[in-house]
Amino acid sequence: MMLACQRFVSVVRNSRTLSRHVTTWSPVGAAFNAQQRKVDLFQKNVGLFGVPALSTPAGFEVAQQRALRETEQLVEIACNNPPGALTVETFDQLSDSLCKVADLADFVKVGHPDPAFRDAAEKACINIGTVVERLNTNVELCRSLKNLLDNKEVLDSLDPDTRRVAELFMFDFEISGIHLDESKRGKAVSLNVNLLDLNNEFLNGTHLPNRIEKTALPEHIRHCFSIDGNSIQIGGLHADSPDELVREAAYKIFLFPNSSLLLCLDDLLTCRNELAKLVGYESFAHRALNGTMAKTPVCFCFVETVMKFLELLTDKLSDRTAKDFNLMRDMKMKMNSRSTVLMPWDHSYFSSAVRAERYKIDPSLYSPYFSLGACMEGLNMLFSQLLGVSFRNEQPMAGEVWSEEVRKLAVVHETEGLLGYIYCDFFRRPDKPHQDCHFTIQGGRLKKDGEYQHPVVVLMLSLPPPTRSTPTLLNPGMMENLFHEMGHAMHSMLGRTRYQHVTGTRCSTDFAEVPSILMEFFATDYRVVNQFARHYQTGQPLPKSMVSRLCESKRICGAADTQLQVFYAALDQVYHGKPQNRSTTDILKKIQEKFYGLPYVPNTAWQLRFSHLIGYGAKYYSYLMSRAIASMVWRQCFQKDPFNRDMGERYRREMLAHGGSKEPMLMVQGMLQRSPTLEELVDALVADLDTDSVTCRDDSS
Questions:
Q1: Which of 54, 275, 316, 656 could form an S-S bond across to 494 if both were Cys, CB 3.0 to 4.6 Å?
Q2: Beta bridge pairs of residue 60
Q3: What would the pLDDT profile of 280-335 be if each residue is shown by its tens digit?
Q4: pTM, whole model, 2 decimals?
Q5: d(CA 325, CA 696)
Q6: Which range, of 36-50, 87-101, 402-416, 615-629, averages the lowest pLDDT?
Q7: Which residue positions does the secretion signal occupy (predicted)?
């Protein structure tokens, strides 16, 4: 049910006149600029996401058992029917049945405020993960798929999407060691199960604070940290603190090596490498990069492609990076620091200081123009003009959401009708992770009855909740993050694939970030921003000069910021390449020296805070490659007119609609109408740092 339209009226006085400014919000804007209507407590509890079993934590066990029964039936169907399209459809049903539990549980274990729900979801994730690993080494199940792929006549009768999905399922079998003898298959299963435990142990460890005796720190900075009795607890880098001693202390203490976590990382990398070699790959990186955009027409050695990309980018950035570091050093000297040597704990603080001095960017001056409701209206208007898609606010049923602050949006196409649902978990609360992310809850697919299974996703942000008098106000970074995450959501909504195995963001990692990063370009284009950025009290539009300053400021020290990402990506590649027979810290020292430019700090182990090693193992480069592709798409297709409907339709048709059912570089080729070279990808990233972007101008004049 849509909320009634609200009006914010204020009176502004000046020496000449009394003027009245009225801002009228659409139902979507009103829903996000007001407190959520309370759920009717007398309604029947429909369960999380409308799944009746999940009205209590015990429902996860019920959901698991149901999925396992369906799995047994579908395995029997797959193994006892002749090869054909039905084989692939059955495999996809099998995947869908398990994913409906695993994907939902994957969100609940981090996003639900009730520990009982989180614990039940965590167990469900582990149990379903174990089942998947066993299915991936089920010889009879694999044989049913191999019979299809080996039968040329049957294979030729399949449509391209069905054939690709069949090949992707076979790839899952192969990387799990299905071709091995029984003892080695058992070893592969054991390694995969061990990896699940190591992944959880390392990921949990990356977030744990470090403790130090209170007396070890100067008294005048102790208040900057969490004090627990005689100990001080440091759970972050405090990179934006104006006190140099606070930044240094936080860096050295938070990154102090934890011997058990170092051992865990060693075991994790060893286990990954052992598994990759067992199933026939040179290294884990070779295994992970199969099927990504690193698989180029001119180079099929994927690891070398990624490293060449990172090295080319480093070469192109070297002069610019040195210039950026010099700017930071000058600023450090200007601010009378204790030392003039630029250290890793200085990067974030002094790059921000340089930007602030040059462009006088004060985020608090922007926030009144970026109320959450206004930003949601902006997204609604942009998607409507570009893609014919709009949001409709719906009132959740009792038990459907995990917090009363969660908003539910139906995504509706102007001619196709309902596309799916987005649950917006945008506001901070205790025990909620401080991260912005997109979760798939249910993938889209064409069902046997001809109906389409609508995708369901959650967008999680960490915004301040609205009050009775003030809506949630976003700073520019928060606004860009909202646009970024909504790019993922629209990928999920518009990826109308036949099979859920390749729905929406279920595509190669280095392609999955393209739609989200592309949205950042829209978020900083004045023509787009001018449609929605209005002062929440006066209704006045955000001045064009403020948008221009913001865009220009982002390029200051941009080369050094990009080079830091190159360092992380290179470290990730080397860790997952051929074993180095050196400690992970020694590897970090060498890679930092080659790819960063600021010195390694003795007795620190930054790698133990590199949580992306879990979800993005050997794929951290994806952010950079996706940004390069997004930049090229923006410049070629949307820079001239960000509301061009023809380009929007092409974007949907060539890039969003396929999910993972098409080779990623073929989708890029369809959009750009050519395949970019590595050099062009590097040049696109550098161009974003060097040129005056049209995103800071209004070309309508």
A1: 656
A2: none
A3: 999 999 989 886 766 543 333 477 899 999 999 999 999 999 999 999 999 999 99
A4: 0.90
A5: 25
A6: 36-50
A7: none
- Residue 398: which residues within 8 A CB-CB, separation 6 or more? 39, 40, 41, 43, 44, 45, 46
Picking from 26, 27, 20, the residue whose alpha carbon sits closest to that of residue 537 is 20
Asked whether the predicted pLDDT for residue 399 surpasses 50, the reply is yes
Secondary structure class of 542 (helix, strand, coil): coil
Candidate from 95-104, 130-139, 344-353, 555-564 with smallest mean pLDDT: 130-139
Residue 117 is given by DSSP the state H
Q: Which residues are catalytic?
A: 485
Question: Which two tokens mark 95?
Answer: 């995947």
- The 3-state DSSP class for residue 508 equals coil
Of 109, 107, 104, the residue nearest 63 (C-alpha) = 104
Number of Cβ within a 10 Å radius of residue 198: 21
Of the chain, the end-to-end C-alpha distance in Å amounts to 41
Backbone angles phi, psi at 232, to 5 degrees: -115, 135
Label residues 390-413 b or e (16+ Cβ within 10 Å = b).
bbbbeebbebbbbeebbbbbbbbb
Alpha-carbon distances of 308 from 76, 395, 579, rounded to whole Å: 46, 51, 19
Angle at 232 between CA 229 and CA 234, to 5 degrees: 145
Please give the Cα distance from 14 to 382 (Å, whole number).
Answer: 35
Show the tokens assigned to 634: 């923006």
- Chain-centre distance for alpha carbon 42: 37
**Tell me, what's the pLDDT at 407?**
96
Q: Which string of DSSP letters, residue by residue, matches 373-410?
A: HHHHHHHHHHHHHHHSEEEEEEPPPTTTSSSTT-EEEE
Give bridge partners of residue 499 from the DSSP assignment. Answer: none
Tell me the CA distances in angstroms from 302 to 156, 188, 331, one per residue in order: 29, 23, 41
For the sheet containing 417-427, what is the strand order? 389-394, 407-413, 417-427, 456-463, 437-442
pLDDT at residue 628 is higher than 70: yes
Residue 557 scores a pLDDT above 80:
yes
Question: E strands of 117-244, at which residues?
Answer: 210-213, 226-228, 231-234
Q: What's the confidence (pLDDT) of residue 137?
A: 85
Question: What does the pLDDT read at residue 340?
Answer: 85
Q: Which H or E element spans position 421?
A: strand 417-427
CB 656 within 8 A of CB 515: yes
Task: State how far Cα 6 lies from the chain centre.
Answer: 33
> Contact at 8 Å (CB) between 9 and 22?
yes
CA–CA distance, 512 with 277 (Å, rounded to integer): 27
Rg of the chain's alpha carbons, rounded to an integer?
26
Predicted confidence at residue 294, as pLDDT, reads 61
Confidence of residue 95 (pLDDT cuts 50, 70, 90): very high
**CB–CB of 429/460 below 8 Å?**
no
Residues in the chain: 701
